[in-house]
Amino acid sequence: MPHPATPALLNADQTPVALTSVHPSEQGWIGRLQARNASVTLPHVIAQLDETSLLNLRNVRDDVEAAHIGNPNSDSEVHMVLEAVAWEAARTGSTEFDSFVDETIELLAAVQADDGYLNSWGQQNAAYEHFSDAAMGQELFTGSHLLKTAVVLNRLGRGDAIMTIATKWADLVVENFGPGKDGYDGFPGVEGALVEFYRETGEKKYLDTAVALLDRRGQGRLHYGPLGPIFFQDHEPVRDAIEALGHASRQQYLDASVADVYAETRDEALEKALVARWESTHLTKLYITGGLGSRHFDESFGAPYELPASRAYCETAASVADIYVNHRLLLLSGGSRYADAIEKVMYNMLPAAVGTDGTSFFSSNPLQVRSRQRDETNNRIARAPWVTHSTSPTSLTRIIASLGAHVATTHDRTLSIQQWFDGSIDLPENIGEGKLAIETNYPASGSIRIRLEGTAVAGARLRMRVPNWCEKHSFNGRSAIVVDGYYDQPLTDDFDVMIEFQMPARFVYAHPRVDAVRGCRAVLRGPVVYCAEGVDNPQIENLVFDTTAEVGEVAEGELLPKISVPARFRRKPQALYMRTMVAVDPEVRTATLVPYGTWGNRGSSPMRVWLPTE
Question: pTM (2 decimals)?
Answer without folding.
Answer: 0.96
